[in-house]
Design brief:
- The relative contact order is 0.16.
- The protein has 2 domains: 37 residues, no CATH class; 39 residues, no CATH class.
- The protein starts with 14 loop residues before the first strand and ends in a 61-residue tail after the last strand.
- It is largely without helices or strands.
- Strand 1 and strand 2 form a beta hairpin.
- This is DUF1540 domain-containing protein.
- It comes from Maribacter chungangensis.
């Protein structure tokens, strides 16, 4: 038996309103998992100076304060994917 904490129904695309599995048609909870698991797509929150296109450039709004791990209102992604 394998342990799959990240594969719970709460992280699955097949979970619909009312905590119901659209594949199996049953109500599920946090500890449920199955082999039909499909991970939900999610945005990653990695907005800090290191991932900013302006870091260590003349366009940086706060060059004296900018450092790895810090974030600001002028953050812009280095690469955008759709």
């Amino acid at each position: 038996m394998s342990i799959r904490l990240g594969n719970s129904c709460m992280n699955c695309e097949n979970l619909v309103e009312g905590n119901t599995c659209k594949v199996h048609g049953v109500k599920v909870g946090n500890s449920y998992t199955c082999d039909s698991f499909e991970m939900k797509a999610a945005l990653k929150s990695e907005q800090n100076c290191v991932s900013c296109v302006r870091f260590e450039t003349s366009d940086c709004a706060n060059p004296q304060k900018a450092a790895p791990g810090m974030s600001c209102n002028h953050w812009a992604p280095q690469a955008a994917m759709a």
